Amino acid sequence: xxxxxxxxxxxxxxxxxxxxxxxxxxxxxxxxxxxxxxxxxxxxxxxxxxxxxxxxxxxxxxxxxxxxxxxxxxxxxxxxxxxxxxxxxxxxxxxxxxxxxxxxxxxxxxxxxxxxxxxxxxxxxxxxxxxxxxxxxxxxxxxxxxxxxxxxxxxxxxxxxxxxxxxxxxxxxxxxxxxxxxxxxxxxxxxxxxxxxxxxxxxxxxxxxxxxxxxxxxxxxxxxxxxxxxxxxxxxxxxxxxxxxxxxxxxxxxxxxxxxxxxxxxxxxxxxxxxxxxxxxxxxxxxxxxxxxxxxxxxxxxxxxxxxxxxxxxxxxxxxxxxxxxxxxxxxxxxxxxxxxxxxxxxxxxxxxxxxxxxxxxxxxxxxxxxxxxxxxxxxxxxxxxxxxxxxxxxxxxxxxxxxxxxxxxxxxxxxxxxxxxxxxxxxxxxxxxxxxxxxxxxxxxxxxxxxxxxxxxxxxxxxxxxxxxxxxxxxxxxxxxxxxxxxxxxxxxxxxxxxxxxxxx
Length: 506
Hints:
This is Putative membrane protein EpsK. By secondary structure, this protein is mainly alpha-helical.
Protein backbone atom coordinates (compact mmCIF):
# COMPACT_ATOMS: atom_id res chain seq x y z
CA UNK A 1 0.00 0.00 0.00
CA UNK A 2 1.23 3.53 -0.69
CA UNK A 3 1.60 6.33 1.85
CA UNK A 4 -1.79 7.91 1.21
CA UNK A 5 -3.69 4.60 1.43
CA UNK A 6 -1.94 3.69 4.67
CA UNK A 7 -2.88 7.02 6.21
CA UNK A 8 -6.49 6.72 5.02
CA UNK A 9 -6.76 3.17 6.38
CA UNK A 10 -5.50 4.30 9.78
CA UNK A 11 -7.77 7.33 9.78
CA UNK A 12 -10.80 5.25 8.81
CA UNK A 13 -10.26 2.91 11.76
CA UNK A 14 -9.76 5.88 14.07
CA UNK A 15 -12.98 7.54 12.92
CA UNK A 16 -15.00 4.41 13.69
CA UNK A 17 -13.28 3.95 17.05
CA UNK A 18 -13.84 7.62 17.86
CA UNK A 19 -17.54 7.44 17.00
CA UNK A 20 -17.92 4.35 19.18
CA UNK A 21 -16.18 6.20 22.01
CA UNK A 22 -18.40 9.23 21.51
CA UNK A 23 -21.44 7.04 22.08
CA UNK A 24 -20.06 4.86 24.88
CA UNK A 25 -18.79 7.59 27.22
CA UNK A 26 -22.18 9.25 27.82
CA UNK A 27 -23.84 5.83 27.76
CA UNK A 28 -21.54 4.53 30.50
CA UNK A 29 -21.96 7.73 32.51
CA UNK A 30 -25.73 7.38 32.43
CA UNK A 31 -25.59 3.64 33.21
CA UNK A 32 -23.03 3.30 36.01
CA UNK A 33 -22.95 6.95 37.10
CA UNK A 34 -20.15 9.47 37.38
CA UNK A 35 -18.66 7.78 40.45
CA UNK A 36 -18.60 4.35 38.81
CA UNK A 37 -17.15 5.72 35.61
CA UNK A 38 -14.51 7.63 37.55
CA UNK A 39 -13.46 4.40 39.23
CA UNK A 40 -13.29 2.66 35.84
CA UNK A 41 -11.03 5.35 34.38
CA UNK A 42 -8.88 5.36 37.53
CA UNK A 43 -8.45 1.57 37.39
CA UNK A 44 -7.50 1.67 33.72
CA UNK A 45 -4.95 4.39 34.42
CA UNK A 46 -3.29 2.28 37.13
CA UNK A 47 -3.37 -0.95 35.14
CA UNK A 48 -2.21 0.97 32.07
CA UNK A 49 1.25 1.25 33.59
CA UNK A 50 1.68 -2.44 32.85
CA UNK A 51 2.11 -1.33 29.24
CA UNK A 52 5.69 -0.58 30.26
CA UNK A 53 6.23 -4.34 30.20
CA UNK A 54 6.13 -4.23 26.40
CA UNK A 55 9.79 -3.18 26.80
CA UNK A 56 9.83 -1.43 23.44
CA UNK A 57 9.55 -4.66 21.45
CA UNK A 58 6.65 -3.49 19.28
CA UNK A 59 8.82 -1.44 16.93
CA UNK A 60 11.51 -4.14 17.16
CA UNK A 61 9.15 -6.80 15.79
CA UNK A 62 8.09 -4.53 12.95
CA UNK A 63 11.65 -3.59 12.00
CA UNK A 64 13.26 -7.03 12.03
CA UNK A 65 10.33 -8.90 10.48
CA UNK A 66 10.34 -6.45 7.57
CA UNK A 67 14.11 -6.81 7.23
CA UNK A 68 14.25 -10.62 7.29
CA UNK A 69 11.15 -10.99 5.11
CA UNK A 70 12.71 -8.80 2.43
CA UNK A 71 15.85 -10.98 2.51
CA UNK A 72 13.77 -14.19 2.71
CA UNK A 73 15.65 -15.28 5.83
CA UNK A 74 12.72 -17.23 7.23
CA UNK A 75 14.61 -19.01 10.00
CA UNK A 76 15.90 -15.72 11.36
CA UNK A 77 12.44 -14.16 11.05
CA UNK A 78 10.87 -16.98 13.09
CA UNK A 79 13.66 -16.76 15.66
CA UNK A 80 12.95 -13.06 16.12
CA UNK A 81 9.17 -13.42 16.40
CA UNK A 82 9.42 -16.46 18.69
CA UNK A 83 11.94 -14.71 20.92
CA UNK A 84 9.73 -11.64 21.27
CA UNK A 85 6.74 -13.90 22.04
CA UNK A 86 8.80 -15.66 24.71
CA UNK A 87 9.62 -12.32 26.34
CA UNK A 88 5.94 -11.36 26.28
CA UNK A 89 4.90 -14.64 27.92
CA UNK A 90 7.32 -13.85 30.74
CA UNK A 91 6.22 -10.23 31.12
CA UNK A 92 2.55 -11.24 30.84
CA UNK A 93 3.05 -13.60 33.78
CA UNK A 94 4.59 -10.76 35.78
CA UNK A 95 1.59 -8.58 34.98
CA UNK A 96 -0.74 -11.26 36.32
CA UNK A 97 1.22 -11.42 39.58
CA UNK A 98 1.15 -7.63 39.90
CA UNK A 99 -2.59 -7.56 39.21
CA UNK A 100 -3.16 -10.17 41.92
CA UNK A 101 -1.10 -8.10 44.38
CA UNK A 102 -2.95 -4.91 43.46
CA UNK A 103 -6.31 -6.64 43.87
CA UNK A 104 -5.32 -7.83 47.35
CA UNK A 105 -4.14 -4.36 48.34
CA UNK A 106 -7.12 -2.49 46.84
CA UNK A 107 -8.61 -2.06 50.31
CA UNK A 108 -5.73 0.22 51.27
CA UNK A 109 -6.78 2.77 48.66
CA UNK A 110 -9.71 4.74 50.02
CA UNK A 111 -10.78 6.22 46.69
CA UNK A 112 -13.49 3.84 45.47
CA UNK A 113 -16.60 5.69 46.62
CA UNK A 114 -19.72 3.50 46.59
CA UNK A 115 -18.26 0.79 44.33
CA UNK A 116 -17.97 -2.51 46.30
CA UNK A 117 -14.42 -3.61 47.07
CA UNK A 118 -15.15 -7.11 45.69
CA UNK A 119 -16.03 -5.55 42.31
CA UNK A 120 -12.82 -3.54 42.35
CA UNK A 121 -10.72 -6.64 42.97
CA UNK A 122 -12.44 -8.69 40.29
CA UNK A 123 -12.11 -5.87 37.75
CA UNK A 124 -8.38 -5.54 38.48
CA UNK A 125 -7.84 -9.28 37.94
CA UNK A 126 -9.78 -9.24 34.65
CA UNK A 127 -7.86 -6.18 33.45
CA UNK A 128 -4.60 -7.95 34.32
CA UNK A 129 -5.59 -10.97 32.23
CA UNK A 130 -6.63 -8.61 29.45
CA UNK A 131 -3.24 -6.90 29.43
CA UNK A 132 -1.37 -10.23 29.45
CA UNK A 133 -3.30 -11.67 26.51
CA UNK A 134 -3.06 -8.42 24.55
CA UNK A 135 0.69 -8.29 25.12
CA UNK A 136 1.34 -11.81 23.82
CA UNK A 137 -0.95 -11.32 20.84
CA UNK A 138 0.67 -8.00 19.90
CA UNK A 139 3.46 -9.97 18.23
CA UNK A 140 1.05 -10.71 15.38
CA UNK A 141 0.13 -7.04 15.12
CA UNK A 142 3.81 -6.26 14.67
CA UNK A 143 3.92 -8.74 11.79
CA UNK A 144 1.01 -7.02 10.01
CA UNK A 145 2.71 -3.64 10.42
CA UNK A 146 5.97 -5.08 9.10
CA UNK A 147 4.31 -6.24 5.88
CA UNK A 148 2.57 -2.82 5.67
CA UNK A 149 -0.95 -4.27 5.81
CA UNK A 150 -2.37 -1.30 7.69
CA UNK A 151 -5.68 -1.97 5.96
CA UNK A 152 -6.01 -5.39 7.61
CA UNK A 153 -4.97 -4.11 11.00
CA UNK A 154 -7.39 -1.19 10.70
CA UNK A 155 -10.16 -3.61 9.73
CA UNK A 156 -9.54 -5.56 12.94
CA UNK A 157 -9.72 -2.35 14.96
CA UNK A 158 -13.04 -1.45 13.37
CA UNK A 159 -14.44 -4.94 14.02
CA UNK A 160 -13.41 -5.00 17.67
CA UNK A 161 -14.70 -1.47 18.27
CA UNK A 162 -18.13 -2.47 16.99
CA UNK A 163 -18.08 -5.69 19.04
CA UNK A 164 -17.22 -3.69 22.17
CA UNK A 165 -20.08 -1.31 21.40
CA UNK A 166 -22.57 -4.16 21.01
CA UNK A 167 -21.46 -5.97 24.16
CA UNK A 168 -21.53 -2.81 26.25
CA UNK A 169 -25.04 -1.88 25.16
CA UNK A 170 -26.25 -5.46 25.65
CA UNK A 171 -24.74 -6.26 29.04
CA UNK A 172 -23.71 -3.13 30.95
CA UNK A 173 -25.84 -2.31 33.97
CA UNK A 174 -25.40 -0.28 37.12
CA UNK A 175 -24.83 -3.35 39.31
CA UNK A 176 -21.31 -4.77 38.95
CA UNK A 177 -20.67 -2.16 36.23
CA UNK A 178 -16.85 -2.08 36.45
CA UNK A 179 -16.68 -5.90 36.46
CA UNK A 180 -18.89 -6.08 33.38
CA UNK A 181 -16.74 -3.53 31.56
CA UNK A 182 -13.57 -5.43 32.43
CA UNK A 183 -15.11 -8.70 31.16
CA UNK A 184 -16.18 -7.00 27.92
CA UNK A 185 -12.69 -5.61 27.34
CA UNK A 186 -11.20 -9.07 27.93
CA UNK A 187 -13.59 -10.67 25.45
CA UNK A 188 -12.81 -8.07 22.80
CA UNK A 189 -9.05 -8.51 23.33
CA UNK A 190 -9.34 -12.27 22.77
CA UNK A 191 -11.30 -11.71 19.54
CA UNK A 192 -8.81 -9.09 18.34
CA UNK A 193 -5.78 -11.31 18.91
CA UNK A 194 -7.35 -14.36 17.26
CA UNK A 195 -8.15 -12.31 14.13
CA UNK A 196 -4.70 -10.72 14.09
CA UNK A 197 -2.97 -14.11 14.39
CA UNK A 198 -5.01 -15.61 11.54
CA UNK A 199 -4.20 -12.72 9.20
CA UNK A 200 -0.52 -12.69 10.17
CA UNK A 201 -0.16 -16.38 9.27
CA UNK A 202 -1.88 -15.73 5.95
CA UNK A 203 0.50 -12.89 5.11
CA UNK A 204 3.62 -14.91 5.90
CA UNK A 205 2.93 -18.56 5.15
CA UNK A 206 6.21 -19.67 6.70
CA UNK A 207 5.56 -17.87 10.00
CA UNK A 208 6.07 -20.21 12.95
CA UNK A 209 6.18 -19.22 16.62
CA UNK A 210 7.72 -22.16 18.45
CA UNK A 211 9.74 -22.58 21.69
CA UNK A 212 12.52 -24.24 19.70
CA UNK A 213 12.95 -21.05 17.68
CA UNK A 214 13.79 -18.97 20.74
CA UNK A 215 17.39 -18.01 20.17
CA UNK A 216 19.94 -16.23 22.36
CA UNK A 217 21.42 -14.21 19.50
CA UNK A 218 17.94 -13.12 18.39
CA UNK A 219 17.11 -12.08 21.96
CA UNK A 220 20.33 -10.10 22.16
CA UNK A 221 19.64 -8.39 18.85
CA UNK A 222 16.08 -7.50 19.87
CA UNK A 223 17.06 -6.24 23.31
CA UNK A 224 19.82 -4.12 21.83
CA UNK A 225 17.36 -2.31 19.58
CA UNK A 226 14.52 -2.20 22.10
CA UNK A 227 16.36 -0.63 25.03
CA UNK A 228 15.99 3.00 24.07
CA UNK A 229 12.66 2.43 22.38
CA UNK A 230 11.54 1.15 25.78
CA UNK A 231 12.41 4.52 27.28
CA UNK A 232 10.24 6.19 24.66
CA UNK A 233 7.38 3.84 25.41
CA UNK A 234 7.80 4.27 29.16
CA UNK A 235 7.72 8.02 28.75
CA UNK A 236 4.55 7.83 26.66
CA UNK A 237 2.88 5.61 29.25
CA UNK A 238 3.84 8.00 32.03
CA UNK A 239 2.51 11.02 30.16
CA UNK A 240 -0.80 9.36 29.20
CA UNK A 241 -1.59 7.70 32.53
CA UNK A 242 0.13 9.91 35.11
CA UNK A 243 -2.44 12.69 34.96
CA UNK A 244 -5.49 10.63 35.87
CA UNK A 245 -3.56 8.63 38.48
CA UNK A 246 -2.35 11.82 40.17
CA UNK A 247 -5.88 13.25 40.16
CA UNK A 248 -7.37 9.99 41.46
CA UNK A 249 -4.96 9.73 44.38
CA UNK A 250 -4.98 13.40 45.36
CA UNK A 251 -8.56 14.48 44.57
CA UNK A 252 -10.49 11.17 44.41
CA UNK A 253 -11.83 9.03 41.59
CA UNK A 254 -14.82 11.30 40.92
CA UNK A 255 -12.49 14.23 40.12
CA UNK A 256 -10.97 12.16 37.29
CA UNK A 257 -14.13 12.45 35.17
CA UNK A 258 -14.02 16.14 34.14
CA UNK A 259 -10.32 15.88 33.36
CA UNK A 260 -10.75 12.63 31.47
CA UNK A 261 -13.49 14.09 29.27
CA UNK A 262 -11.20 16.90 28.11
CA UNK A 263 -8.26 14.52 27.82
CA UNK A 264 -10.29 11.98 25.86
CA UNK A 265 -11.35 14.57 23.30
CA UNK A 266 -7.74 15.69 22.99
CA UNK A 267 -6.63 12.10 22.40
CA UNK A 268 -9.30 11.61 19.74
CA UNK A 269 -7.71 14.54 17.93
CA UNK A 270 -4.15 13.45 18.69
CA UNK A 271 -4.51 9.88 17.43
CA UNK A 272 -5.06 10.62 13.69
CA UNK A 273 -2.05 12.92 13.81
CA UNK A 274 0.04 10.11 15.28
CA UNK A 275 -1.21 7.80 12.53
CA UNK A 276 0.55 10.06 10.04
CA UNK A 277 3.77 9.46 11.95
CA UNK A 278 3.25 5.68 11.77
CA UNK A 279 3.39 5.69 8.00
CA UNK A 280 6.14 8.32 7.81
CA UNK A 281 8.57 5.95 9.57
CA UNK A 282 9.10 3.47 6.70
CA UNK A 283 9.26 6.27 4.13
CA UNK A 284 11.88 8.16 6.11
CA UNK A 285 13.83 4.94 6.58
CA UNK A 286 13.86 4.33 2.84
CA UNK A 287 15.10 7.83 2.05
CA UNK A 288 17.78 7.57 4.73
CA UNK A 289 18.93 4.18 3.51
CA UNK A 290 19.41 5.55 -0.03
CA UNK A 291 21.03 8.77 1.17
CA UNK A 292 18.23 10.79 -0.43
CA UNK A 293 18.36 14.00 1.60
CA UNK A 294 16.07 15.85 -0.82
CA UNK A 295 13.43 13.12 -0.68
CA UNK A 296 13.58 13.10 3.12
CA UNK A 297 13.19 16.87 3.24
CA UNK A 298 10.17 16.84 0.92
CA UNK A 299 8.54 14.03 2.90
CA UNK A 300 9.02 15.89 6.18
CA UNK A 301 7.85 19.20 4.68
CA UNK A 302 4.60 17.61 3.48
CA UNK A 303 3.88 15.70 6.68
CA UNK A 304 4.86 18.51 9.05
CA UNK A 305 2.67 20.86 7.07
CA UNK A 306 -0.26 18.43 7.10
CA UNK A 307 -0.10 17.76 10.84
CA UNK A 308 0.36 21.45 11.64
CA UNK A 309 -2.67 22.33 9.54
CA UNK A 310 -4.85 19.69 11.21
CA UNK A 311 -3.61 20.35 14.75
CA UNK A 312 -4.02 24.11 14.31
CA UNK A 313 -7.52 23.65 12.92
CA UNK A 314 -8.54 21.40 15.81
CA UNK A 315 -7.08 23.90 18.29
CA UNK A 316 -9.02 26.83 16.86
CA UNK A 317 -12.21 24.77 16.78
CA UNK A 318 -11.74 23.59 20.38
CA UNK A 319 -11.38 27.18 21.61
CA UNK A 320 -14.61 28.35 20.05
CA UNK A 321 -16.80 25.23 20.16
CA UNK A 322 -15.19 22.76 22.56
CA UNK A 323 -17.67 23.64 25.30
CA UNK A 324 -20.59 23.09 22.94
CA UNK A 325 -19.12 19.72 21.94
CA UNK A 326 -18.73 18.57 25.56
CA UNK A 327 -22.27 19.60 26.47
CA UNK A 328 -23.69 17.85 23.40
CA UNK A 329 -21.59 14.74 24.03
CA UNK A 330 -22.01 14.22 27.78
CA UNK A 331 -24.84 16.53 28.79
CA UNK A 332 -22.43 18.20 31.25
CA UNK A 333 -21.72 21.93 31.14
CA UNK A 334 -18.26 21.79 32.70
CA UNK A 335 -15.86 24.69 31.97
CA UNK A 336 -13.00 22.69 33.51
CA UNK A 337 -13.32 19.95 30.88
CA UNK A 338 -13.35 22.56 28.12
CA UNK A 339 -10.23 24.29 29.43
CA UNK A 340 -8.42 20.96 29.83
CA UNK A 341 -9.27 20.12 26.23
CA UNK A 342 -8.02 23.49 24.94
CA UNK A 343 -4.72 23.23 26.84
CA UNK A 344 -4.00 19.66 25.71
CA UNK A 345 -5.05 20.22 22.08
CA UNK A 346 -2.99 23.42 22.01
CA UNK A 347 0.10 21.47 22.99
CA UNK A 348 -0.46 19.21 19.97
CA UNK A 349 0.09 22.18 17.65
CA UNK A 350 3.74 21.77 18.63
CA UNK A 351 3.91 18.04 19.41
CA UNK A 352 2.22 16.66 16.26
CA UNK A 353 4.50 18.30 13.66
CA UNK A 354 7.61 17.51 15.70
CA UNK A 355 6.54 13.87 15.89
CA UNK A 356 7.44 13.67 12.20
CA UNK A 357 10.99 14.66 13.09
CA UNK A 358 11.05 12.04 15.85
CA UNK A 359 10.06 9.36 13.37
CA UNK A 360 12.75 10.49 10.95
CA UNK A 361 15.32 10.34 13.75
CA UNK A 362 14.12 6.88 14.67
CA UNK A 363 14.41 5.74 11.05
CA UNK A 364 17.98 7.09 10.99
CA UNK A 365 18.85 5.02 14.07
CA UNK A 366 19.00 8.02 16.42
CA UNK A 367 16.95 6.36 19.12
CA UNK A 368 18.96 7.23 22.22
CA UNK A 369 18.57 11.01 22.17
CA UNK A 370 14.86 11.00 21.30
CA UNK A 371 14.21 8.46 24.06
CA UNK A 372 16.01 10.58 26.64
CA UNK A 373 14.10 13.68 25.51
CA UNK A 374 10.77 11.85 25.90
CA UNK A 375 11.82 10.56 29.31
CA UNK A 376 12.76 14.06 30.45
CA UNK A 377 9.31 15.30 29.36
CA UNK A 378 7.63 12.54 31.36
CA UNK A 379 9.58 13.32 34.54
CA UNK A 380 8.93 17.06 34.31
CA UNK A 381 5.27 16.30 33.54
CA UNK A 382 4.96 14.27 36.73
CA UNK A 383 6.71 16.88 38.86
CA UNK A 384 4.69 19.81 37.50
CA UNK A 385 1.40 17.90 37.78
CA UNK A 386 2.07 17.12 41.46
CA UNK A 387 2.98 20.74 42.08
CA UNK A 388 0.27 22.56 40.13
CA UNK A 389 -2.62 20.33 41.20
CA UNK A 390 -2.33 21.83 44.69
CA UNK A 391 -3.15 25.30 43.37
CA UNK A 392 -5.26 24.82 40.25
CA UNK A 393 -6.70 21.31 40.58
CA UNK A 394 -7.27 19.45 37.31
CA UNK A 395 -6.38 22.57 35.29
CA UNK A 396 -2.94 22.52 36.92
CA UNK A 397 -2.48 18.91 35.83
CA UNK A 398 -3.26 19.89 32.22
CA UNK A 399 -0.67 22.66 32.36
CA UNK A 400 1.76 20.19 33.92
CA UNK A 401 1.43 18.12 30.74
CA UNK A 402 1.50 20.94 28.18
CA UNK A 403 4.36 23.07 29.51
CA UNK A 404 7.19 20.49 29.39
CA UNK A 405 5.97 19.12 26.06
CA UNK A 406 6.10 22.51 24.34
CA UNK A 407 9.29 23.83 25.94
CA UNK A 408 11.43 20.68 25.73
CA UNK A 409 10.44 19.76 22.21
CA UNK A 410 10.90 23.29 20.87
CA UNK A 411 14.14 24.04 22.72
CA UNK A 412 15.77 20.59 22.67
CA UNK A 413 14.22 18.20 20.15
CA UNK A 414 13.83 20.64 17.27
CA UNK A 415 17.46 21.90 17.22
CA UNK A 416 18.76 18.36 17.66
CA UNK A 417 16.63 16.99 14.80
CA UNK A 418 17.59 19.80 12.42
CA UNK A 419 21.27 19.24 13.16
CA UNK A 420 21.20 15.42 13.09
CA UNK A 421 19.13 15.13 9.91
CA UNK A 422 21.04 17.97 8.23
CA UNK A 423 17.85 19.90 7.52
CA UNK A 424 17.66 23.52 6.42
CA UNK A 425 15.58 25.10 9.19
CA UNK A 426 14.71 28.21 7.18
CA UNK A 427 13.65 26.18 4.19
CA UNK A 428 11.56 23.90 6.40
CA UNK A 429 9.88 26.94 7.97
CA UNK A 430 9.16 28.38 4.54
CA UNK A 431 7.83 25.16 3.02
CA UNK A 432 6.09 23.48 5.96
CA UNK A 433 4.95 26.20 8.36
CA UNK A 434 4.25 29.45 6.52
CA UNK A 435 1.86 27.93 3.91
CA UNK A 436 -0.46 26.80 6.72
CA UNK A 437 -1.04 30.32 8.05
CA UNK A 438 -3.52 31.53 5.38
CA UNK A 439 -5.95 28.57 5.73
CA UNK A 440 -5.72 28.70 9.54
CA UNK A 441 -6.43 32.44 9.42
CA UNK A 442 -9.48 31.78 7.24
CA UNK A 443 -10.70 29.21 9.77
CA UNK A 444 -10.16 31.65 12.64
CA UNK A 445 -12.25 34.30 10.88
CA UNK A 446 -14.98 31.73 10.18
CA UNK A 447 -15.10 30.55 13.81
CA UNK A 448 -15.20 34.11 15.12
CA UNK A 449 -18.17 34.90 12.87
CA UNK A 450 -20.09 31.72 13.75
CA UNK A 451 -19.44 32.09 17.49
CA UNK A 452 -21.41 35.35 17.48
CA UNK A 453 -24.56 33.39 16.66
CA UNK A 454 -26.75 31.87 19.36
CA UNK A 455 -26.06 28.13 19.24
CA UNK A 456 -27.76 25.45 21.28
CA UNK A 457 -26.21 22.02 21.96
CA UNK A 458 -26.92 19.42 19.31
CA UNK A 459 -25.10 17.22 16.83
CA UNK A 460 -26.79 18.93 13.90
CA UNK A 461 -25.30 22.30 14.82
CA UNK A 462 -21.88 20.80 15.47
CA UNK A 463 -21.81 18.90 12.18
CA UNK A 464 -22.84 22.02 10.26
CA UNK A 465 -20.18 24.11 12.01
CA UNK A 466 -17.54 21.46 11.35
CA UNK A 467 -18.48 21.18 7.69
CA UNK A 468 -18.33 24.95 7.24
CA UNK A 469 -14.96 25.11 8.98
CA UNK A 470 -13.64 22.32 6.80
CA UNK A 471 -14.74 24.20 3.67
CA UNK A 472 -13.11 27.44 4.86
CA UNK A 473 -9.87 25.67 5.74
CA UNK A 474 -9.77 23.39 2.70
CA UNK A 475 -10.67 26.04 0.14
CA UNK A 476 -7.80 28.33 1.09
CA UNK A 477 -5.42 25.37 1.42
CA UNK A 478 -6.28 24.14 -2.09
CA UNK A 479 -5.88 27.64 -3.52
CA UNK A 480 -2.29 27.95 -2.31
CA UNK A 481 -1.25 24.30 -2.78
CA UNK A 482 0.09 24.67 -6.37
CA UNK A 483 2.40 27.45 -5.18
CA UNK A 484 4.07 25.51 -2.37
CA UNK A 485 7.85 25.29 -2.68
CA UNK A 486 8.03 21.52 -2.18
CA UNK A 487 5.52 21.00 -4.98
CA UNK A 488 7.55 23.17 -7.33
CA UNK A 489 10.66 21.22 -6.35
CA UNK A 490 8.95 17.89 -7.01
CA UNK A 491 7.69 19.12 -10.38
CA UNK A 492 11.15 20.28 -11.33
CA UNK A 493 12.62 16.91 -10.43
CA UNK A 494 9.92 15.19 -12.50
CA UNK A 495 10.87 17.36 -15.50
CA UNK A 496 14.49 16.34 -15.18
CA UNK A 497 15.72 19.37 -13.19
CA UNK A 498 16.76 18.01 -9.81
CA UNK A 499 16.97 20.57 -7.06
CA UNK A 500 19.97 18.98 -5.42
CA UNK A 501 22.11 15.89 -5.52
CA UNK A 502 21.04 13.36 -2.87
CA UNK A 503 23.54 13.14 -0.05
CA UNK A 504 23.79 10.98 3.03
CA UNK A 505 21.37 12.23 5.70
CA UNK A 506 22.01 11.80 9.39
